[in-house]
Amino acid sequence: MANILAFSETRLGELRRAGLETVTAARQVADATGGQVHAVLVGAPGIAQHAARLAAHGADVVLVMEHEAFANYNPEAITATLAARLESGYRAAFFAASAIGHDLVARVAAKMRLAYASDVTEFAFSGDAVAVAHPGYTNKIVQRFVLKATPALISLRAGAVLPVENAKAGAVEALTAAIDPTSVRVKVTLTEKAAGGKIDLGEAPVIVAGGRGLKEAANFKLVEDLAAAFGNAAVGATRAVTDDGWRPHSDQIGQTGRLVSPDLYVACGISGAIQHLAGMRTSKTIVAINKDKEAPIFKVADYGIVGDVMEVLPVLTEAVKAVKAGA
Amino acid sequence: MTASNGLFALIVAVAAGFFASNVQRLVGYLRLGRLDDSRWDNVPRRLYNLATIGIFQRKIFRDGIAGPMHAAIFWGFCVLTVGTSEFIVRGIVPTFTLAHYLPQWAYRFYQNSQDLWGALVIGAVAFALWRRLTHRVKRLQGAETHANDPLLILSWIGLLMVTMFLAESFEMVAFPQHASPYYRPLSYALANVLSFVPQDWAAFFRSLNWWSHGLLVLGFLNYLPYSKHLHVVASLPNVYLSNTSGPGQAGVMKYMDLEAETEQFGAKDVEHLSWKSLLDGFACTECGRCTAVCPANTTGKLLSPRKIIVNVRERLEQRALELQTAGSGRETAEGRPLLDGFISEQELWACTTCRACVQECPVSIDQLSVILEMRRNLVLGESRFPEEVMPAFESMEQRGSPWAFDPGERGKWADGLDIPTMAELAERGETADILYFVGCMGSFDDRAKKTTVAFAKIMKAAGVNFAILGREEKCNGDPARRMGNEYLYQMLARENVDTLAKYHVRTIVTACPHCMHQLGNEYPQFGGHYDVIHHSTFIAHLLAQGRVPLREELHAAVSTFTYHDSCYLGRYNQIYDAPRETLKRALPVVHLVEMPRSGDRGLCCGAGGGRMWMEESEGKRINAERAEEALATGAQAVAVACPFCMTMMRDSISSRDESVPVYDIAEVVAERLG
Amino acid sequence: MKLAVCIKRVPDMEGRFKIASSGTGIDEAGLKFDMSDFDGYAAEVAIQITEKLGAGEVTVISLGPDVVQETLRKALSMGAHRAVQLKHDAPVSDGLAIATALAAELKDGGYDLILCGRMAVDTQNRSTGAFVAELLGLPVITAISQLNVDGGVVKARRELEGAYELIECPLPAVVTIDEGIARARYPSLKGIMAAKKKPLEVKPAQVGAVTYQLEKMELPADRAAGRIIGEGKDAVPELVRLLKEEAKVL
Ligand SMILES: Cc1cc2nc3c(=O)[nH]c(=O)nc-3n(C[C@H](O)[C@H](O)[C@H](O)COP(=O)(O)OP(=O)(O)OC[C@H]3O[C@@H](n4cnc5c(N)ncnc54)[C@H](O)[C@@H]3O)c2cc1C
Ligand SMILES: Cc1cc2nc3c(=O)[nH]c(=O)nc-3n(C[C@H](O)[C@H](O)[C@H](O)COP(=O)(O)OP(=O)(O)OC[C@H]3O[C@@H](n4cnc5c(N)ncnc54)[C@H](O)[C@@H]3O)c2cc1C
Ligand code: SF4
Ligand code: SF4
C-alpha cells in the first residue's frame, strides 16, 4: 500500500505540537490502509534531533532536510521538494492547519494541480476517496465533501487529532532539496516569538475578561492568573471596569472598545450588556462565570458556570495549568 | 431751516446711506447660502412668534435675572425709537412735532413714556455693566465671545440716554416756558436741579447734548453691522423667519435629495448652509444661554453651540470677501473652510442632538441644524467619523440594526407570549388595529426587552388588538440620520415604509421615542403617514379609561420616584406630562420628585445623536452628571420612558448607588397588573 | 503601479444559516451579502497604495453571477478604479477551477501586485491566492498582516501562532491579506456616486475543469448557547473536559 506523508512543523529549531498531531493522524490512516508513515522534518542543521519523538508517535521513516537556509520557513524550496516527493506515489499528506501549514499545503496543491482539504476536523479514508469535514461560515456550518485526488492533501485543524504515542522504527533518511534553497524568490528573513507576555487582544487565541463582578482592581489578579495559565491568553475588561480605572481603556472590549473574536472567551463577572456583546459575540467558544443565573451573558455563552468568580477562578486556573502541564 | 439743520440733514443722509449699504451687504452675504429654504409661509404663526418671542421676550424671561434686565432695555428701545424718530425729523425740520398729530393726552403719554423708559434703560444698563464687570457670569464667558463689545455697547446706550435727558433738561432750563412736569417729569426734575445754570449756557449745553445724542444715535446704527449687537437689527427678522413647525415637526431633519447632481452633500463651508443658518449668525447675541444648557459643553467637551453660531458669522464675513473678489484679480487670501478652519470634527461629534440649545435661544436660532448639516458632509462627503461607529453603520446596513444580531431573532422576545406578527395575521387573512414597533433596543437589549414585554403585557391585559413585525422590522434609521449618514437612513426608512404599506398600517405604538419621532415625524418625507403613539401616552390613555386591571396596592415598595425626561419625547415632541401621569396613576401612593433640570429644561442622558455608539472620553460623562442629579433628589427609584435613557441612567446609577433601580414607566405599570 | 484585487461575495456571517434543500448549499433567502472581510482589507490596502503614490490603478475582479456587480461597485465606491466581473452563474466549488478563471483574466493585465483575501469567510479554503500565483508563475506570500512595497520588492509580515515572521519577495507578486493590516473604509456618498460612473466590464469566466465536489453541508451539533454546566467550583472539571474534548480549545 501507498505511504502516508506527515509534515512535522518546527519553529526556531523546536518541534511544534502540531507536528506530532500530523504524525499521529498519518499513523491512524496507515494502520487502517496499510503503508508506512513518512514524517518530514525540515530545519537548520541539528533539527534531526527531533526524529526520535516523531518515531515515538508512529513515524516509520523520518525524512530530514537540514540546511542553514531552512532556519526560517522556506516555502518555495519545501514546496518543490515535497511536490517532487509526493509525485513518487503517496496516498495522502497531512499538514497542520497553522499559518505555515496553510501556506504550504496550498502551494503543494497548486504545484501539483490538485484539490485539497483545508482545516479538516474529521476524515475517513475508503478506497480512493476521503470523506472530510471542514468547518466554514465562521464555524456555523460543517462542510462535508469527498476528496478523490491522490495524494489527498489535508491540513488538519489543531486538536482534531491529539498526539498519541505509538512507537515505530523512525529510520532517519536524508531528504534533498529539489531546488537550491538559497536561490528562491520568497525569503523569510526573520522569525521571532511575539513580544513576551502581553499578547494583543486582537490576536490572542484566548481572552480572559473581567467585569464589575470582580468588585475591585486587586481582584483582577485572578483574571491575570487564569490568562497566564492558558499561556496564549490576553486580558480584557468591560467598560464598567475601565471606567473605574481598574484597567486601561485599551483593554476595553465592546462597542466602543476592541472588537475581538478569539477561539475562547472567558467572561468573569460580566453581565453581558449589549455594548459588551457587540465586541465579543463572534468568539468561537464563550465561557461565562457569573453569580446571577439570569445574567444575559449566559444567553451567548456555550458553557456557563453559576458561581462566585472569587471561588471559581482559582480552581479553574489550577485545572488549566494541569492540562497545559500534561500536554 | 438753519445751517445747522442742513448739516444735520446731510449727516443723517450719509448715515442712512451707509447703513443701507451695510444692510445690503449683509443681505448679499445671506444670499451666498442655500436658498432652497423658504420661510414665507405660515404668516399668522410667524407673527405670533414675533409677538411672543420677539416683542414679549418670552424666552428671554427664562433667565430670571437677565430676563427683566434685557426686557427693560429692549422695550425701552422700542419706545424710545419713536422719540428718536421724532428727534431726527425735528433736527431737520425744526417745526416738526408729534404734538401736531396726536391728541393731547396721547402726546402727553408718549412724552411720559420716553422719560420713564429712558430711566429704566439707564437702570438696566447700569445693572448690566455692573454685572459684567463684577461677576464673571459663566455663560457669558468663552473664547469665541467678543467680551469688550458688550461693554462698549452698554456704555453707548447709557450715553444715549444720558445725552437725551441732559438735552431735554437743559432745554427746559434754557426755555423755561417749554417746561412742564406733566410731559417729561424726570427731565423736569433734572431741569430743576440744573436750574442754577445760566440760560445761555444752558442753551449751549442743550445743543451740545442734542448733537451728541444725534451723532451717537447715527453712530450706533452704523456700528451695529460690525458688532455682535447686529442682533438688535437681525433678531426680530430671525424670530419671524424661524422654524414654525409645531410639536414633533420642529425637530425634523431636512430631507436630502441623494440623487441630486451635486458633489457636495451637507455643509463643509458656509455657502453649503441654508441662508437662514447664516442669518442665525447675524442674530446671535452671544448670550451663551445655549452653551449653558448644552450637556456636552457643561460636562467639559469642546462643543459650544454658541461657538458654532459665532463661527458661522465669522467665516461668512471672511468667505463672502473671498467669493466676491474671486476672479477679480484682487483675490483675498483663501481662509480655511468652516469645517476644520473654525469648527473641528471633535466638536461636531460631541452633540447629542438634545435640542436644549434650540429650546433656550432667545432669538430662535437653530444651532443644531448647522451641526447636523456639517455631520452630513463629514459622513457622506468625506467618510470621516469616530471609528467605533463603523460597525454600527455596517450592521444597520447588513442586518437592519446597529448591533450585529441575527435579524431573524428580532421577534424572539415574544416567544411564548402569544403575540402575532403582521405576516402571520396576513396569512390567516386577519389584521391588527395597532402595530407595535419595538425597535432595536427593545428587540435585542436584554434590559430593554423587559420593557418591551411589560408594555406588551399591559396591552394584552387591556385587550388591545396588536401585532408586531418580527423579523421584517428594521432599525428606524434615527442613529444613521443623526450621525449624518442620510444615505443609510433613507435606505432603512424606505424599507420600513414599504413594509408598513404592505400591511396597511395606520396606527403604531412604540416604547422608543426615537422610533416614535422617526415614524411619526420624519417618515412622511417618504410617504409614510401614521398615527404614532408613544407608550407613555398610550398607557396613560388606557389607565384613564380604566382599561388596565390593576391590583389594589396601598403600600408601594418604592415611595419616591424621579422621572428623567427623554429629549426626543420632551423637547422634540412636547410630551412631558403623559409619563408622569402614568406613574401617578399606576402608583397613587408614590411621590414624584423633580430634578432641578426637568421638563423642557431636562438634561439629556447622553445617548442621542448617535452618541450611544461613540466613546465618551472627553470631560465628564453626561450620564454621570445626570445620575448625580437624579440621586441628589433622594428618590428611591428613577423612571425613564426611553430604552436609550434606560441604558445611560442604569449604567451610571448602578456604579454610584446600586440600591436605586431604574424602571421604565411600562414596567412600573406592569408590576401592578392584576 | 497596477494592482488587482480578487473579491468574493459572501453572505453576512451574523445570520443564522439554514441548509438549502439541495443539502450542498445554504438557503440564501433573507440573507444579506457583502464583500468577504479579508477582501475588503485587501481592497483597502491596494487603494491606500495608489493614494500614497498619487498614481496607479486598482482593478477589482470577482467571479460569479450578476449579483457580484453589487460587491464590485462597493469596491469602486471605496476608491478602486475599475472592475471586472467574470460571469459564471452556477456555483463553483472547486478552488482550482476558480483560480484558473482568475489567472486567465490576470495573466495579461500587467499587474505588479495581485491581492487576495487570506480566506473567504464563508467557505474558508485559503487556497485561491496560492493557486493563482502558481498558475501565473508568480511568487506568493500568504496571510500577511503588514505590507510595504518599495523598489520592486514586497516586504511583509505574517502572524504565526504566538510568533511572527518577516518575508520578502520581488514584484510582480501575489499576496493574501490577513486582518490587522487595514480596515476597509466606509464608502462616502461621493464615492458611491463616483462608482456609478466607473467602468465595470463583464466577461465570461473561463472556469477550469471541476475535479472536486461538495457532498453535503450540515449544521454543527447544536451546542445550545445558554448551557449552564453547573454551579460553583465543582463545575470546573466538567468545564475543562468540555473545553478539551468538545470545543477543542484547550
Ligand atoms: C455609549 C456606551 C458605550 C458602551 N461601550 C461599552 C463597551 O465598549 N464595552 C463594554 O463592556 N461596555 C460598554 N458599555 C457599558 C455597558 O452598557 C455595561 O454597562 C457594561 O458592559 C457593564 O459591565 P459589567 O458587566 O462589568 O458590569 P455589570 O453590568 O455591573 O455586571 C456585573 C456582573 O457581575 C456579576 N457579579 C457580581 N459579583 C459577582 C461575583 N462575585 N461572582 C460572579 N459574578 C458576579 C453580576 O451578577 C453582574 O452580572 C457602554 C455603554 C454605553 C452607554
Ligand atoms: C462546502 C464547500 C467546501 C469546499 N471545500 C473545498 C476544499 O476543501 N478545497 C477546495 O479546493 N475547494 C473547496 N471548495 C470550493 C471553494 O468553495 C471555493 O469556491 C474555492 O476553493 C475558493 O475558495 P474560497 O472561496 O473558500 O476562497 P479562499 O481560497 O479561502 O480564498 C479567498 C480569496 O480568493 C479570492 N476569491 C475566492 N473566490 C473568488 C471569486 N469568486 N471571485 C473573485 N475572487 C475570489 C478572494 O480574494 C478571496 O479572499 C469547497 C466549496 C464548498 C461549497
Ligand atoms: S443639541 Fe444639545 S448637545 Fe447638541 S449642541 Fe445643542 S445643547 Fe449641545
Ligand atoms: S445662539 Fe442663541 S442662545 Fe446661543 S449665544 Fe446666540 S443668541 Fe444666545
List low-pLDDT spans of chain C: none
Amount of beta strand of chain A: 25-35%
Q: Report the C-alpha radius of gyration of chain C, rounded.
A: 20 Å
The total of beta strands of chain C comes to: 13
Q: Supply Rg of chain A.
A: 22 Å
In one word, what is the shape of chain A? elongated
Low-confidence stretches of chain A: none
**pLDDT averaged residue by residue of chain C:** 90
- How many structural domains does the protein architecture of chain C include? 1
CATH homology superfamily name of chain C: HUPs
Assigned CATH class of chain C: Alpha Beta
**Mind describing the biggest β-sheet of chain A?**
7 strands, parallel
Q: How does this model look, in words?
A:
The complex is a heterotrimer of chains A (327), B (674) and C (250). Helices cover 29% and strands 29% of the residues of chain A. Chain A is an alpha/beta fold. In chain A, the strands form four sheets. In chain A, strands 7-11-6-1-4-5-12 form a seven-stranded parallel beta sheet, with helices on both faces. A five-stranded parallel beta sheet of chain A has the order 15-14-16-17-18. In chain A, a hairpin with a 4-residue loop joins strand 9 and strand 10. Chain A is elongated. Chain A starts with a strand and ends with a helix. Chain B folds into four domains: 3-31 and 63-235, Fumarate Reductase Cytochrome B subunit, CATH 1.20.950; 270-384, Fumarate Reductase Iron-sulfur Protein, Chain B, domain 2, CATH 1.10.1060.10; 401-544, Rossmann fold (3-Layer(aba) Sandwich), CATH 3.40.50; 560-670, Rossmann fold (3-Layer(aba) Sandwich), CATH 3.40.50. With 674 residues, chain B is mostly helical. Chain B has 28 helices and eight strands. Chain C is α/β, with parallel strands linked by helices and 250 residues long. Helix content of chain C is 27%, strand content 31%. Chain C has six helices and 13 strands. In chain C, the strands form two sheets. Chain C has a nine-stranded mixed beta sheet, with helices on both faces. In chain C, strands 2-3 form a two-stranded antiparallel ribbon. In chain C, helix 2 (68-78) crosses helix 5 (189-196) and helix 3 (95-107) packs across helix 4 (128-136). The longest helix of chain C is centred in the N-terminal third of the chain and has 17 residues, at 37-53. Classes of the chains: A alpha/beta (327), B mainly alpha (674), C alpha/beta (250). One flavin-adenine dinucleotide (FAD) sits between chains A (211-213, 238-241, 252-257, 269-271, 273, 275-276, 279, 290-292, 295, 308-310) and B (612, 647-648, 651, 654).
